[in-house]
Design goal:
Mean pLDDT: 93
CATH superfamily of the largest domain: DNA Polymerase III, subunit A, domain 2
CATH architecture of the largest domain: Roll
Strand order of the largest sheet: 10-6-2-3-4-18-17-16-11
Helix content: 10-25%
Length: 374
């Protein structure tokens, strides 16, 4: 193999592809980047058997077969190359020589036939989605994906697409995040569950809010195409919980709050809460004073704060995980939000925008110590 290409282009491509490379693998090839000359340039691929990222860069020349080079070493070298152009040459024993200006490195590559084949979509369903909409929708639900749920499907985001509308949902047993958006789609209804890891990589590669993402999927795999990259992974199989049946339909208290005020107050009250000293935040919704009071107490100390709010209905006292509250309010982009509550200790808080239903967050309460539950 012999390649001559732009150093900056190779650096950017390798850095992005590296995110899909396995950190530790039985097969050493999975810890590398697969570099392959093609008729259009140089193809780079990273694949950890769960997520694959591929891209194509132009080259002054590219010929011969491919090779696999350890990703960390390769990316470290490229970042420090001195010249605008670089070359990569390999021989029949996969000895790889990288040159740029006066710098030269010799590495041992890995035979390309040891690199696993990426999944592919056959006879799939293609879609085109605006980058900005997809990025925002993913960002506004992905924090609620389960990290350790025994049901694998809850480690992903459920997509429900029908004519004119797309809905994303994620849950972890303690909270639920749902996002709706109108889209230009006229095909048959589609429902699938994409791994959160795959979607995180999609968001990282979106840098042109005015561009589009191509999506193609079949029953087992999905491919996202954007900004010169393809991200491919398997879909999660199983029954996603029917979350709509878990949402309360009636509430006794409605609270309207300023989103930034709520976020700032939660941050302040959470300063004494750590992984070591976990404790729920006590939230007192006071209908007489039109305010929410927050209190936290750990072995480190205690804190309290309050914000103004428009409260209609009965006063309520509940405990919540402060991070879950913070995640929900940080995800929205509206100035004010509506919190719906019931007095029962087990009933969740439901968070909506003032108008419409583009967002929906549901957070289960946490039992307060007896001395705080009054």
């Amino acid at each position: 193999m012999k390649i001559i290409c732009d150093t900056a282009a190779m650096n950017e491509a390798a850095s992005n592809v590296q995110r899909a490379v396995a950190s530790k693998a039985v097969n050493p090839a999975l810890e590398g980047i697969y570099i392959k000359p093609t008729g259009q340039g140089v193809e780079l691929c990273g694949f950890d058997t769960d997520v694959g990222i591929t891209t194509l860069i132009s080259a002054d020349s590219a010929e011969g077969g491919g090779t696999v080079i350890n990703a960390k070493t390769f990316c470290d070298i490229i970042r420090h190359l001195p010249a605008r152009k670089m070359s990569i040459e390999t021989d029949e024993k996969n000895k790889c020589v990288i040159r740029s200006g006066d710098a030269e490195y010799t590495l041992m590559g890995i035979p390309e036939n040891t690199y696993p084949e990426l999944p592919f979509v056959t006879g799939g369903t293609p879609m085109i989605l605006p980058q900005e909409i997809l990025k925002n929708m993913i960002r506004q639900v992905i924090f609620a994906v389960s990290l350790d749920d025994s049901k694998t499907v809850h480690k992903g985001v459920k997509f429900e697409i029908r004519e004119g509308e797309m809905t994303l949902a994620a849950l972890d047993g303690y909270r639920l995040a749902v996002r709706h958006e109108a889209i230009d789609y006229t095909g048959d209804p589609i429902s699938f569950i994409a791994p959160s890891k795959t979607l995180s990589e999609v968001v990282k590669l979106i840098n042109d809010d005015e561009g589009f993402v191509s999506v193609n999927l079949d029953k087992k795999h999905i491919i996202f195409g954007l900004n010169g990259y393809n991200i491919v992974s398997g879909l999660l199989e199983g029954d996603f919980i029917d979350y709509r049946r878990t949402i309360p339909q009636k509430f006794e208290t409605a609270v309207i709050v300023n989103t930034q005020d709520m976020t700032d107050s939660i941050d302040r009250i959470s300063l004494l809460i750590t992984e070591r000293f976990k404790t729920p935040v006590k939230c007192v919704v006071d209908s007489e004073q039109n305010e929410i009071r927050f209190l936290s107490s750990t072995t480190i100390g205690s804190a309290n704060d309050r914000i103004s709010a428009d409260v209609e209905g009965v006063s309520i006292v509940k405990g919540f995980n402060s991070r879950y509250l913070s995640d929900a309010f940080r995800a929205v982009d509206t100035e004010r939000m509506r919190i719906m509550l019931n007095p029962a200790a087990v009933d969740p808080a439901c968070i909506y925008p003032i108008e419409g239903d583009r967002y929906f967050y549901m957070i289960l309460p946490v039992r307060l110590p007896d001395e705080q539950a009054k």
